[in-house]
Amino acid sequence: MASVSGQLEGLYMAHSRKDMNDTLTDALLSACAPDTAMPSRLVMEHVLLLSVLHHTVGVEVGAHFLEAVVRRFDAVYKNGGEGKECENLLTIVAHLYNFRVVQACLVFDVLKKLIGTFTEKDIELTLLMLKNVGFLLRRDDALSLKELIVEAQAKASEASGKFQDQTRVRFMLETMLALKNNDMRKIPGYDPEPVEKLRKLQRALSASSDTDTRLRISWDGILSAEQTGRWWIVGSAWSGAPMIDNSQQKVLEKQPSGTVSGKILELARKQRMNTDVRRNIFCTVMTSEDFLDAFEKLLK
């Protein structure tokens, strides 16, 4: 894992981040989200690799992958596919939370949506998510988990005659109560050890990054990113909020004013300034006489 992540970091330094993000996302989704059931361990290891790059390269790595996963899940879920792609994509989201790429709010968002519609498929997906991250949710936000359980109990009462077989509904409620009471024994097949081992490996590989890089994004915020902007990525392109401008015209990024030497541009590349905005700011700061000169140039 250390060798692979190190090689990918080198590729990120040598190539466009957009191209790398697109390629990495396509490769991970092809490996982890087919239409057939995937081994949980395999999905965990792929998401672990992504989480290491999220910490060492930059949050845009995890943000790009997360957006692709959420959009694909939304499309597959709405189409009502009978394969296992929905389950695989939701497992990816669960492990993005396990490995600290996203915060709990995103997981609660998708659980609330599933409980809100409350079909047999939704119950299966809810159980899958709770089995993977339920106890971590309890540790991070016990109050929100309690509110979710109350909502699920109310939905189950309303839908008492909706399902011919009430077994899965009862099992879901029993699982939620086990989480509430912190009783791992009542969840069949629950084994936290594989995730804990990979978390230790993640901490070792991301030791140089001691900042909290978890993304605090809502589910709907990701789906509406084309209209409201990707505010969670510094320097990302944005077409403007609808209430300000309904046109599809993109905001043009300004190029560094004046001429910039090849030496400065090469230094910018070595410092991982791989977007126009980053290069622009870096070159401005490096070529300014003082802070006032830099301030005036940045305003232009």
From TrEMBL:
<protein>
    <recommendedName>
        <fullName>Nucleolar MIF4G domain-containing protein 1</fullName>
    </recommendedName>
</protein>
<comment type="similarity">
    <text>Belongs to the CWC22 family.</text>
</comment>
<dbReference type="Pfam" id="PF02854">
    <property type="entry name" value="MIF4G"/>
</dbReference>
<dbReference type="InterPro" id="IPR050781">
    <property type="entry name" value="CWC22_splicing_factor"/>
</dbReference>
<dbReference type="InterPro" id="IPR016024">
    <property type="entry name" value="ARM-type_fold"/>
</dbReference>
<dbReference type="GO" id="GO:0042274">
    <property type="term" value="P:ribosomal small subunit biogenesis"/>
</dbReference>
<dbReference type="InterPro" id="IPR003890">
    <property type="entry name" value="MIF4G-like_typ-3"/>
</dbReference>
<comment type="function">
    <text>Plays a role in targeting PPP1CA to the nucleolus.</text>
</comment>
<feature type="domain" description="MIF4G">
    <location>
        <begin position="5"/>
        <end position="183"/>
    </location>
</feature>
<comment type="subunit">
    <text>May interact with EIF4A1, EIF4A2 and EIF4A3. Interacts with PPP1CA and PPP1CC.</text>
</comment>
<dbReference type="GO" id="GO:0003723">
    <property type="term" value="F:RNA binding"/>
</dbReference>
<keyword id="KW-0539">Nucleus</keyword>
<dbReference type="GO" id="GO:0005730">
    <property type="term" value="C:nucleolus"/>
</dbReference>
